[in-house]
Amino acid sequence: MSLEFLWYIPNQVTPGHRGEPVTAGHNSLDTLTAHARALEEHGWRGALLGAGWGRPDTFTVATALAARTTTFEPLIAVRPGYWRPANFAAAAATLDHLTGGRVRVNIVSGKDDLGAYGDAEGDQAHRYARTREFLQLVRRLWTEEHVSYTGEHFSVTGSTVAPRIEPRDGRRHPKLYFGGASPAAERVAATEADVQLFWGEPLDGVRERIERLTALGAELGRAHAPLEFGLRITTLVRDTTEEAWADAEAKVAEMARAQGTTPQNPHRQTAVGQQRLLDLAARGEVLDDNLYTTPGRFGGGGAATTWLVGSAQDVARSLRRYAELGITHFVLSDTPYLREIRRQGEQLLPLLRA
Asked: Could you write out the DSSP letters of every residue in 69-101?
């Protein structure tokens, strides 16, 4: 299977995301469009757009960027509860129709300010049971007509989405990406997702999770095409290895000055995937040659918790090792975003496609 390379577009209200220096109009349509068009011009397939209350609505941003581009594919993060399945299935089918099949979807089940939009949830089992139903129902609405479904969390009667999703090059519908490392999340991924996204763990951790999810899918009777796997990570690429490490250490030093003390992640005890990343620092500052764990000690979260650091050749070698394990979807990023879209598109992607 061929490898796919996406980036990250920071649809944020507050400037300065992960050290991004652009402040004036940082989230204007012109600025974000410049990112999307640069991605088209430098070999990227598209970009992940994050979701969460208190930031621009992800679907609206994705629609605006799709309208101003020709090949850019938005990976749109959505939350069950913020959306109901039928409403989302119809909106995504419409955008997929208007863009000629450029929609991808990332289902997010993590914590959010649910009360701000009238949502509520119970424990972890409740949250992932709801996510499972959301995935099941959206997929059926995209591939069947006159759908009736009665679940614990969602239901529809005689529902047909229009316009219909058009199969394209073997793709029946937009790919459904999913993340999560808890046992409950992995059971959902193994049976219902198209792509499982991992954070930047060492190779041995990713290998173990791929093996476990593959076995789990067989055990639980997965009914869909084989689960694919992706990696979401920060890639700090510079012209030389020495320059990359000097910049990485300078960035971490600035993070330490800004934080003052080691921050406490509010989801450290509940987000299993984030916990796994934060715990890596105990194994060493650098793992697998160039996986830098120190950023997580000073405020790096999610994809910014660990970084792959080095020259384009160093980072390409590391990413190829993940590909050898079965990773086929890569979602990369570094700041300044626009500069790094160009640099990594010109220096890194050709090595990975060689």
From this structure: -SS-EEEEEE-BTTB-HHHHHHHHHHHHHHHTS
